[in-house]
Design a protein that fits this description.
Blueprint (H helix, E strand, L loop, with lengths): L1 E5 L2 E4 L4 E8 L7 E7 L6 E6 L6 E3 L7 E6 L4 E6 L8 E8 L14 E2 L3 E6 L1
Parallel strand pairs: 2-11
Antiparallel strand pairs: 1-3, 3-8, 4-5, 4-9, 5-6, 7-8, 9-10, 9-11
C-alpha cells in the first residue's frame, strides 16, 4: 500500500485546512486509517483514526471538537478536516494504514503503512 498525504499549507490561527490521504496499490477498505503529526523537536503523536467501516472514530484530546476524520473507501481516500487551527497544531502530518487492536489505535506500532507527510503551519 502506498499512501500520499496532501492538503497542508500555511494558515492563520482560527483557520481551516483539509488534509487528504490517497492510497494506491491496494484497497484501503480493510484497514484502519490514522493521522499522526510531528512538530520540530517533538515525538510523533497520534491525532485521529477511523476504523475500516468508517463507523468508529478516535481523536486525541487536543483536537477533539476541532478535527473530523472521514473516509471514502470507494475512492480509496481518507480526509482530515481541521478547523479552528491553533499555532500548536503546526507539524508535519502523516497518514497511516493498519489493523491495530483497540489499545494500539493511538500508537505508531499499530500501523504498517505510512505515507510521506504534509506540512501544516499555523501562524498566530
Amino acid at each position: 500500500v502506498q499512501l500520499q498525504a496532501s492538503g497542508g499549507g500555511l494558515v492563520q490561527a482560527g483557520g481551516s485546512l483539509r488534509l487528504s490521504c490517497a492510497a494506491s496499490g491496494s484497497t484501503l477498505s480493510k484497514y484502519s486509517m490514522g493521522w499522526f503529526r510531528q512538530a520540530p523537536g517533538k515525538e510523533r503523536e497520534f491525532v485521529s483514526a477511523i476504523r475500516w467501516s468508517g463507523g468508529i472514530t478516535y481523536y486525541a484530546d487536543s483536537v477533539k471538537g476541532r478535527f473530523t476524520i472521514s473516509r471514502d473507501n470507494a475512492k480509496n481516500t481518507v480526509t482530515l478536516q481541521m478547523n479552528s487551527l491553533k499555532p500548536e497544531d503546526t507539524a508535519v502530518y502523516h497518514c497511516a494504514a493498519g489493523t491495530p487492536i483497540l489499545s494500539y489505535v493511538g500508537k505508531q506500532e499499530g500501523y504498517r503503512y505510512w505515507g510521506q507527510g504534509t506540512q501544516v503551519t499555523v501562524s498566530s
